[in-house]
Amino acid sequence: MKKTLIAAALFLSAPLAAHAACAPTDFQVQDFKMKLVGAGAAARLSLTGQLVNHCAEAAAAQITIDAKDGSGKVLATKKGWPAGTTNIAPGQSVDFDLGRLFRFDPEMQQYTVGVADVRTW
After folding, report:
1. According to the UniProt entry, where is the signal peptide (predicted)?
2. Which domain holds residue 36?
3. Relative to the CA of 42, which of 13, 54, 81, 102 has its CA 20 to 30 Å away?
């Protein structure tokens, strides 16, 4: 009975171990840029960059983008998975544009980006 419980515990914890192999610090966002495309009511944001996997395993990362006013107050926060449900190979990168997640607001003056979560698909 004890062997069965130990085996069950190992099988249940295996997916957790795979999930925890890479951490948000194993990913880096490079060349993050904001650009306003269009004008007036048709204006939209383009928030582009590259997400690079520095982990030893293929994994995907979720990033967080904060839109701030001129004083640094956060006006909106959005999260997205730049590679979707595709793992990024070690040492590889994926280009992204997550501007579509935000509705343009002229008060948004600064944007910060960070890695929020990591998982393998």
Report:
1. 1-20
2. 2-119
3. 81
Q: Minimal CA–CA distance to 107: which of 52, 56, 70?
A: 70
Looking up residue 66, the CATH number of its domain turns out to be: 2.60.40
Mean pLDDT of 62-85: 96
Q: What is the pLDDT of residue 2?
A: 56
C-alpha–C-alpha distance, residues 41 and 50, integer Å? 28
8 A C-beta contact, residue 109 and residue 67? no
3-state secondary structure of 85: coil
CB 63 within 8 A of CB 91: no
Instruction: Report the number of distinct structural domains present in the chain.
Output: 1
> Which of helix, strand or coil describes residue 16?
helix
By the 10 Å C-beta count (0-12 exposed, 13-18 middle, 19+ buried), 47 is classed as buried
